[in-house]
Specification:
Strand order of the largest sheet: 1-2
Strand content: 5-15%
Radius of gyration: 16 Å
Low-confidence stretches: none
Order of helices and strands: EHEHHH
Number of strands: 2
Amino acid sequence: MIIHIASIQGKLPLYESTLPYAAAKAGLINYSKGLSKEVAAKGVRILTVSPGWIMTDGSKRMMERISKSEAISIERATQSVMNALGGIPYGRPAMPEEVAELVIDGGTIPTV
């Protein structure tokens, strides 16, 4: 099995701040789909996970840039990005550890 971590931005780019990242993730999504058709007959599964917004170090730096450029708090910057994404039902970005747990156990073990 091959697992690719894509992004919601592959389909919903934030053009004002992450267009190159979004383009790369869109390419990864399409590559994964094409590769899966090529290798499935050989017993290789390709899984692409698009977990939504993850609060990585890069995301933290982006919040700092938005905060500084718009003269708002980090919290308001975070909320503005969540709003631009159409909202996040959980009320916050995911943490990297949460995505890793999902990929490792396939969502079998519920975590809060």
